[in-house]
Sequence to fold (155 residues):
Amino acid sequence: IPDIFQAMTFRENPRVEYYPINYKDIVIVVMICVFLIIETIYLIYTKRKIKQKDDLYDVTLIFNNKIYHLSGFLDSGNHANYLGYPLIFIKKSKIDTYQQLDTLIIDGLKKRKIDIILVDQVLVNKQSLRNVYIGVLDELDYDCLLNKELMGGII
Fold:
C-alpha cells in the first residue's frame, strides 16, 4: 500500500460512544411543548374575548309599541348605509312581525336578503336615537350589530 493511502487510514479506531435514548426525557420535552402551545392559544382566546366584551352594549329598541332588549356588538367594519343614513343590523328572531320599507339583496359569498325597517327609538349607552333604519337578517352572530358612524357621539 502506498504511503498516501496509509496516511488516510486510521491506525486506531476512534471510540464512538452511544448514549441510550431515554424515552422518559422525550415525553417530558413533548409535554412541555404541548403545554406551551395550549397556554398560548388560551391567552390569545381570552384576550380576544376581553376585547369583544369592550365592544358589547345593551341595546333597547322601541318598535311597534313594544320594547326589545338586545345585546349589541359595535362592529367597526359596519359602514352600511341606507339612503345615506347609517344602518344597524338585527337578528330576525329577536323581533316580532314587522312591515318592511325595502329589501336589499347582498350578493357575496352567500346571497343574503336584508329587510329594511324604520325603528321609532333605539337606546344605547343611556342615549336615545330616533327614527333609525334597521337591517333585519336571518343569520347574525349577535342580537344586533351597531354602526360605528351612528354610535360616534354616543359611545
